[in-house]
């Protein structure tokens, strides 16, 4: 397929994301690119997306390998959804979705999970940032951590620590039930505007609590009793006691929904459109973020719960964590700006604050009534 790379829309630790177009049809899509030698996550995602198709999954378009700037690049083509992630929708609705929207989104996610599970696939990283809000309903995205169920009984696990089930935190297993636990955490996220275990700042302590206490995440007090009962079926600490996706789809909390009458922008405010949506959803494998979201894929056999928790919480097997430098001036590049056009490949180096200020002043002189937005991200 012939295609033309468009503007940069996001960058993560394992992939860079651009818009792309087909020159013949003018079709717009997204391309996730990584050096071929570092593309195992993208290739895993391609394997699953190319085999399966569901209204509740992001659409797969294709892939290719190109030679660019003396580098061999692996490119994954997928549906471009500019409507935002579930997290964007929550923010757009004031930090909490209404109960009807929670029910609607939950059922759509469950339908996607039931489809994956019925085909022997565990997603391994269900959370708000990996759910895209398309016009026809939520879609599960980012299958870079997914695996077939037969590959789940190993010492190597993937995902976001705060959304992991107790059995995953203990390094025991990561099967279908782990996706159900993560779904329950995502329902809490929709209702409360933050993830589970929000009262614990340290991810290491949180993982010990998840894996080795009797605690479960706090339920939203305002949620109806049916909603609380639904959560209780998702968040049972014993994975064998959690309800399956098929069982949960029959729960009274999801009864009586008419998906045809619902829109993803129904929350009493505008649709959750954000230029930041593409930055977060396309690659959830950033080493560490504000929400302590980390990914790992360490093949070592871990001999103790403490070692497993350390690996889960830091994403590395060494004693140090490669954290982003939020205070330095180097390695920042512009992602989007509604001011003067900038060559993003050259980046914003050494003095991004004064650079951004000059852009703002120039735009104010040109259009005094405009609001100028400059967005930069740091490249590791």
From TrEMBL:
Residues 3-254 form the Protein kinase domain. Belongs to the protein kinase superfamily. SUPFAM superfamilies: Protein kinase-like (PK-like). GO terms for molecular function: ATP binding; protein serine/threonine kinase activity. Residues 343-357 have a biased composition (Polar residues). Keywords: ATP-binding, Kinase, Nucleotide-binding, Serine/threonine-protein kinase, Transferase. It comes from the Eukaryota. ATP binds at residue 32. This is Protein kinase domain. InterPro entries: Kinase-like_dom_sf, Plant_MAPKKK, Prot_kinase_dom, Protein_kinase_ATP_BS, Ser/Thr_kinase_AS. Pfam families: Pkinase (PF00069). Residues 343-362 are annotated as: Disordered.
């Amino acid at each position: 397929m012939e295609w033309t790379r468009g503007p940069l829309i996001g960058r993560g630790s394992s992939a860079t994301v651009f818009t792309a177009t087909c020159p013949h049809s003018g079709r717009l899509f997204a391309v996730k690119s990584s050096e071929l030698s570092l593309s195992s996550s993208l290739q895993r995602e391609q394997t699953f997306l190319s085999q399966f198709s569901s209204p509740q999954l992001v659409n797969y378009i294709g892939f290719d390998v190109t030679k660019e700037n003396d580098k061999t690049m692996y490119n994954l083509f997928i549906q471009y959804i500019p409507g935002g992630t579930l997290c964007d929708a929550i923010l757009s609705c004031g930090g909490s979705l209404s109960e009807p929207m929670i029910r609607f989104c939950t059922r759509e996610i469950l339908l996607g999970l039931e489809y994956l599970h019925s085909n022997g696939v565990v997603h391994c990283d269900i959370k708000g940032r990996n759910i895209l809000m398309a016009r026809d309903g939520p879609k599960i995205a980012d299958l870079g951590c997914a695996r077939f169920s037969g590959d789940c009984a190993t010492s190597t696990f993937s995902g976001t620590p705060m959304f992991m089930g107790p059995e995953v935190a203990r390094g025991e297993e990561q099967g279908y039930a782990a996706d159900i636990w993560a779904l329950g955490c995502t329902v809490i996220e929709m209702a409360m505007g933050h993830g589970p275990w929000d009262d614990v700042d340290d991810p290491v302590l949180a993982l010990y609590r998840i894996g080795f206490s009797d605690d479960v995440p706090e339920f939203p007090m305002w949620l109806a009793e049916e909603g609380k009962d639904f959560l209780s079926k998702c968040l049972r600490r014993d994975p064998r006691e959690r309800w399956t996706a098929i069982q949960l789809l029959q729960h009274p909390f999801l009864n009586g929904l008419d998906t045809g009458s619902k829109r993803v922008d129904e929350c009493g405010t505008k649709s959750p459109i954000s230029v930041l949506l593409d930055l977060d959803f396309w690659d959830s494998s950033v080493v560490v973020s504000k929400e302590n979201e980390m990914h790992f894929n360490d093949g070592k056999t871990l001999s103790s719960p403490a070692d497993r928790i350390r690996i889960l919480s830091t994403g590395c097997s060494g004693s140090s964590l490669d954290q982003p430098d939020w205070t330095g001036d180097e390695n920042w590049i512009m992602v989007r700006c509604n001011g003067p056009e900038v060559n993003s490949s050259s980046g914003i180096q050494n003095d991004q604050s004064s650079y951004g200020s000059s852009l703002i002043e120039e735009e104010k002189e040109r259009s005094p009534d405009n609001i100028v937005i400059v967005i930069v991200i740091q490249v590791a």
